[in-house]
Amino acid sequence: MIATPYLLYLGHSSDDIGIKTSRGLAVFRPDICVGEFRHDDCPLTLGLARMDFAKAVRAGARTLVLGIANAGGTLGEDLIADSIAAMEAGLDVASGLHSRLKDEPRLVETAARTGRILHDVRDPQPGIPVGNGRPRGGHRLLTVGTDCSVGKMYTTLCLARAMERRGIAADFRATGQTGILIAGSGVPLDAVVADFISGAIEQIAPAREDGGWDLIEGQGSLFHPSFAGVSTGLLHGAQPEVLVMCHDPARTSMRGLPGRALPGLAECIAANLAVARLTSPDVRIAGIALNTSAMAEEAALALCAEVSAETGLPCSDPYRMGVEAILDAVLDPAFARAA
Question: Which Gene3D superfamilies match (predicted)?
Fold first, then answer.
């Protein structure tokens, strides 16, 4: 287990989307975050107390979370140097980067010398089975998206909390490093060998008979050339009863692919339903979640109303406006829209 509380790392980051892991923890688990570490050239903040490593240890922090995402998920020299300094100050280090902490000799040596622990959150557990696609009991919802980083985790967590407020048994099933750090468990799906992706989801969201819901965090997009494979395996393994589509209306091109346009909502909904039907023939779409964080409130409300009128689906910004209308559609088995 990763020791809490956390000190959240921003480092030299200047890309707001690139600090999504640290931001997600600050938003959904502020109870286990004591502060943020950033260098003087970092223009970003999570609104937490700025601390150096020694101050964070005095404040009770036990683990530095490298909650950033750079191109390729690599451990640059700045990250290595800061991680060494953090361990020497008395902190463990946790990372969701593709480059593993345990593969950097300097970090391994420092951890051994200081008695600290290195946590590679993107290491999947051994023994993941191959998916079988056989029908299994229980209610499952999967968030899908027009692109990467459009709010699938936020939407899933908001739906889980809304269900809990209604007294409905609901479990958030994490599939990415941020979600795993928030939930304390899950599978880092983009680190799973392709043949085992659907099996990994069957494993973390098995059959259930208590009437509750597994709310599964989506990844990637069927329309993103780089990540459509993981999205496909996730759709098959989740065997979802319900989909919720996530979209960032401020996005002008696919993340990391300048000039490549995002799909239209209707096109994306139809494609996701078609793929999901392989293992869930009666799957339905229950709503659209927009990330309107870059918009003024009046414009955001107007856009949600417009999208709802165009698609016939409830639409909101889950974090900003709530998810009650979407949740009503999720829980109503008669609610379905022809795709």
Answer: NAD(P)-binding Rossmann-like Domain, P-loop containing nucleotide triphosphate hydrolases
